[in-house]
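REVIEWER CHECKLIST
Item 1: Sequence provided? yes
Item 2: Single chain? yes
Item 3: Sequence as submitted:
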Amino acid sequence: MAKTDIKYLSPVDVELKNQNKYCRFQKMGIKYIDYKDPEFLMRFLNEQ
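Item 4: Structure as written out by the authors:
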């Protein structure tokens, strides 16, 4: 029986930037959200 080299796969070192989640309403300085105003809410929806 021949001696074989055992190779282990090492995980790829991927540097992830620490991306903190943020609230877009806080970022824009909006303190009150009127959920009954559809025109206001449509600005924050994507086309999907």
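Item 5: Key structural point noted by reviewer: The radius of gyration is 25 Å.
Item 6: Recommendation: ____
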